[in-house]
Amino acid sequence: MKNFYLFMISLLLMSCSFNQTFKDRESDKDDGEQIPKKFYWELKYGNNQENIYKLFGEKFFEVTDKEKLAKLLDMTNNIGPVQEYNLVKWETMIVKGSNARSQYFLMYDVKRGTKKTEESFTLEKNKEGDIKIVGYRVNQDLLSE
């Protein structure tokens, strides 16, 4: 009977996951912000679209191919070139432990020429520890024009 209890306790301990969760820490926001900063720098000053593609993760390209991303970037550039961008909303969720994951959400108000867009990034840290864009969305208020 004693062996049975030890066996059951062992099973319980093996099935447990030990995680530490951090939500909306300023340092995590700063880490996540580096990717949109690189993205907007490449849009403004870079001349190699491959550098922009490197900021996107495999999850993004499972849903959207490079041609669609290129079309989206062309459409946003037709609205106007990026003049300035300001972070208006952010959320982070970092889990350390046996079920580790890092997720970031950043929303920017972007001034493009005389027009404005609202652009949001969903980011995740990959297995190599690099933060990559897994979601990118652009909204423009057409009624205010």
Share of residues in strands: 35-45%
Largest sheet: 5 strands, antiparallel
**Total number of helices:** 5
Question: How many angstroms separate the termini?
Answer: 77 Å
| Global geometry | elongated
Helix content: 40-55%
Per DSSP E runs of 2 or more residues, the count of β-strands stands at: 5
Low-confidence stretches: none
What is the H/E order? HEHHHHEEEE
The radius of gyration over CA amounts to 21 Å
Task: Write out the strand line-up for the largest beta sheet, numbering strands in chain order.
Answer: 1-2-3-4-5
Q: What is the averaged pLDDT score?
A: 90
Main structural class: alpha+beta
List its traits:
37% strand; elongated; 145 residues; 5 helices; 5 strands; alpha+beta; 5-stranded antiparallel β-sheet; 41% helix
Could you give the topology of this structure?
Blueprint: H1 2-15, E1 19-23, H2 26-45, H3 49-53, H4 58-63, H5 66-79, E2 82-97, E3 101-112, E4 115-125, E5 131-139
Can you walk through the features of this model?
It is a single chain. With 145 residues, this protein is an alpha+beta fold. Helices cover 41% and strands 37% of the residues. It is built from five helices and five strands, in the order αβααααββββ. The protein has helices at residues 2-15, 26-45, 49-53, 58-63, 66-79, and strands at residues 19-23, 82-97, 101-112, 115-125, 131-139. The protein has a five-stranded antiparallel β-sheet with strand order 1-2-3-4-5. β3 (101-112) and β4 (115-125) form a beta hairpin. The N and C termini lie far apart (77 Å). The model has no long low-confidence stretch (mean pLDDT 90).
